């Protein structure tokens, strides 16, 4: 039976930590992750997007979670073409030209840092979220293909933030050729920056959906403006047919909530988990 795993995009967001979701006695780094893993079987590690982690850190993540737990690890911003502050790079790379050599070395360090999760059986996928500026076309495809080539031995998931990718007949075949998971999203519809909720299955191993919330400020404004949303039971239930379809074509489905204001993501994830419980057993 397909494993349907529900969780949140991050477990250390300051808004979540200050919300009271973590009980007293479990608010240090180890306690938070162990408490999270008591409730959900998958999490997105978003901190590697902002700075390269250390292998020591990811080894601790593996040690603090049970067998079967999954980390979907966001790619470092430089690897996906996002603006990257020099201070986010290791000190010895900050003066390096922004060229292929820098990308190759950055990838090597990122892969070394994430490898403890893979060796421990905790890695779900690497998640490459490409910026809205990456519009489909030959140059963009070359950039994505080069990223995939660096990560050729790794599970690889792609979230496009430029909606035109999903209006191009080439995209599905392109990701299938790369053996890459197409990441589905839930956002508010009928905005210029809206992304379609229906994303094809492009690898039989994994499907990923990220629930960004339905703020009218999606694509604009501050992070809080973009992701502030409390999912209603109706909004979550309408996803059940899509989830069923994904599960029919993949070995594992990850549903990750990114409406990260206070504990809204954790509450939505718990409700989605409850909705799925009658039909699917999800490990805790």
From TrEMBL:
Recorded hits in Gene3D superfamilies, A to Z, give: Protein of unknown function UPF0759
Question: Which InterPro entries does the protein's record reference?
Answer: DUF72, UPF0759_sf
PANTHER family named among the record's database cross-references: UNCHARACTERIZED PROTEIN YECE, UPF0759 PROTEIN YUNF
Recorded protein name is DUF72 domain-containing protein
Q: Which organism is it from?
A: Streptomyces collinus (strain DSM 40733 / Tue 365)
Its lineage opens with: Bacteria, Bacillati, Actinomycetota, Actinomycetes, Kitasatosporales
């Amino acid at each position: 039976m397909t494993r349907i795993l529900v969780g949140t995009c991050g477990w250390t967001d300051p808004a979540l930590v200050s919300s009271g979701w973590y009980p007293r006695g479990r608010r240090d780094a180890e306690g938070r992750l162990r408490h999270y893993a008591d409730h959900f079987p998958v999490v997105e590690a978003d901190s590697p997007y902002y700075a390269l982690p250390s292998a020591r850190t990811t080894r601790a993540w593996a040690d603090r979670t049970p067998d079967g737990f999954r980390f979907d690890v966001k790619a470092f911003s430089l690897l996906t073409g996002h603006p990257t502050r020099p201070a986010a790079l290791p000190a010895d790379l900050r003066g390096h030209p922004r060229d292929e050599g820098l990308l190759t070395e950055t990838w090597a360090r990122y892969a070394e840092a994430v490898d403890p999760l893979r060796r421990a059986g905790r890695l779900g996928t690497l998640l490459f979220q490409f910026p809205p500026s990456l519009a489909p076309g030959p140059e963009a495809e070359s950039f994505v293909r080069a990223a995939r080539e660096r990560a050729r031995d790794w599970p690889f998931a792609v979230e496009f933030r430029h909606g035109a990718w999903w209006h191009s007949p080439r995209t599905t075949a392109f990701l299938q050729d790369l053996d890459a998971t197409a990441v589905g999203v839930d956002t508010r519809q009928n905005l210029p920056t809206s992304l379609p909720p229906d994303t094809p299955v492009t690898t039989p191993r994994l499907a990923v959906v990220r629930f960004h919330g339905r703020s009218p400020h999606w694509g604009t404004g501050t992070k809080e403006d973009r992701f502030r949303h409390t999912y209603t039971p109706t909004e979550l239930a309408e996803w059940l047919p899509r989830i069923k379809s994904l599960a029919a074509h993949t070995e594992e489905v990850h549903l990750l909530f990114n409406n990260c204001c206070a504990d809204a993501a954790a509450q939505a994830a718990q409700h989605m988990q409850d909705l799925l419980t009658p039909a699917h057993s999800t490990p805790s």
